[in-house]
Amino acid sequence: MATLEEHKTQARIDTPEGSINSWVNGEDVPMTGTVYETFITDQATELLRVETEGYKEDRAKEYPSFADQFDDIFHNGIDAWKATIQATKDKYPKP
Prior knowledge:
mainly alpha, 2 domains, two-stranded antiparallel sheet, 3 helices, 2 strands, elongated
């Protein structure tokens, strides 16, 4: 797993200073200086968050609804429900 500083380094490689624009005082100008560094920090922070916490969002999207889970338990029992949930956990493991 990469650190925040490693993500910042990669973000600087992927998006060199001045290669993207920002809207300033009604003009589209290249990002430089503190605006650029803030952009890089924000990008790196989001990448780190996705790397460390993204599995939670992926799991939540894939789990059946609560109603479907309760129905599964009612009709097929706890073990079948556990198997369904475990398949998603296995697909999106914790880092």
